[in-house]
Amino acid sequence: MAKASRSPWKRANPRKRAGKASKHLSPAQKSAAKARARRAGRRYPNLVDNMRVAAKKTSKRKTPSKSKSSKAKSAKKSVRKTGKRNAKKTSKSSRKRVASAREKDPRGGLTAAGRKAFARKQGSHLRPGVTKKQSEMTPQEMRRKGSWAVRFYGRAKVPPLVDAKGQPTRHALSAHAWG
User: Which pLDDT value is given to residue 86?
Assistant: First the structure.
């Protein structure tokens, strides 16, 4: 059986062990860590959010080789010559549509890929809905389902369950998926 790793606040600082000076977060990184903590409902400052933000790679801004106007002119020329739209824009938008289609479960809720994408974007950990029969649920699963139901239906105004075309909305599908 694999040995469980110790919490980061119980481990020695690897930079200190290596004899290097510790690095400080930039103001932008601090604000990102604060926002991350706020979204997760944690107090700031905390080690978890600081470590996550510090681990992210920062992209350096490249200087553009062409100005915007020259790029637009060259794009117009290519459209005139070929009679087609810019292929990059079309393929990027279609990829985005395909990705979002894979992330949303057609029966309601998110797929595993959708939960993973959400975790990548938001930094949170979503779990699939509890769909077991009540007799098969553990007390923890009952608590999760009860908590979900209160958040979902305990609103002053519940979102519509059917759209203008008579199709169930994502809200209704999600409710059906949870059972």
Answer: 47
